Amino acid sequence: MNFKRFGRPAIIAIVAGLALSSCAANEGATPASDDAAASTLSGTINGAGASSMGAAQEAWRAGFQTANPDVTVNYDPTGSGAGREAFIAGGTDFAGSDSFMSTDELAGTFAACAPDSKAVDLPVYISPIAVIFNVEGLTELNIDADTLAKIFAGTITSWDDAAIAALNPDATLPATPITAVHRSDDSGTTKNFSDYLFQTAPDVWTEKASDTFPFSSGDGAQGTSGVVSAVTNGVGTIGYADASQAGSLSTAKLMVGSDFVAYTPEAAAEVVAGSPLVADRAADDLALNLNRKTTNPAEYPLVLVSYAIVCNTYADAAQGELVKAYIEYIASAEGQIVAKDAAGVAPLSSELEANVADVLATVK
Fold this sequence. Notes:
- This protein has 13 helices and 12 strands.
- It is an alpha/beta fold.
- The protein folds into 2 domains: about 10-125 and about 275-285 and about 305-360, Periplasmic binding protein-like II (D-Maltodextrin-Binding Protein, domain 2); about 130-270, D-Maltodextrin-Binding Protein, domain 2 (3-Layer(aba) Sandwich).
- Strands 1, 2, 3, 4, 6, 7, 8, 9 and 12 form a 9-stranded mixed β-sheet that branches.
């Protein structure tokens, strides 16, 4: 592997993470079937990135390795930003990212790709982002974008604040300080969360969407699991996380139009279905411009789309075939059902699934 852009501690962390993920996937896999014995694929695929789709990646890897017993798939949930950096440097064969590649990233080179080849964003995972909270005596919470923005920007600091009370007239709100928990690492979940607030509460959330949490307020935690743990074990806590990992925590309803809407995979998928591709990108890049400003109560606008980032053409053709086969599997109807069963997420629409398949047909 090529880790030239990383310091030695980062190299050790990524290699160790990939090794551990390989063990976990092999332990979780079921015995190979007769069909699997017919597979001609062999080798190792290394990926890293979004922690949000960790449960889905575990299930995808187990399913793919069962069907292809001579293939090992490793996925290290280091976060979207670290995953993209590792892929760009040639340290992994693909990246998982909750945010699509930036213009600057696309303008650069990709060490795993053939000369003059670029990388593309392929949506493979759709999930709502849940606003999770842990407040004694409070199990239901209505919130609008302005109030949510003020909480995470640090201007609303107590649970009995008048703005929260106005949205929850039947609730008994304690005079408990608010601890807002955000991601401390570069995170596509943060980018989607901040994009939602920038678009829907621009007077409060003045910073554009970013993988890095833009304010100094609140407490930071590493990865999706870190945020969930901090909210679970804290007092008066609130955070944001992929809904598949919200567990037993209470979750807020968001104001959409004039209604308060709870997250569901179906409502997240509705937003994605109505969102156009990002303009001025290559025809085979399927980055989506999500419709955060919807007023349709059938849609939940605080949603993330996770992308598999792969080369158009790999420098190592055999490795390209391996990666292509794995991403074809996770983006297929079968793979999407596996993710739904493992993480409760929404499968790709038939149109988006077909678009991803068309692009993958050209990958080599």
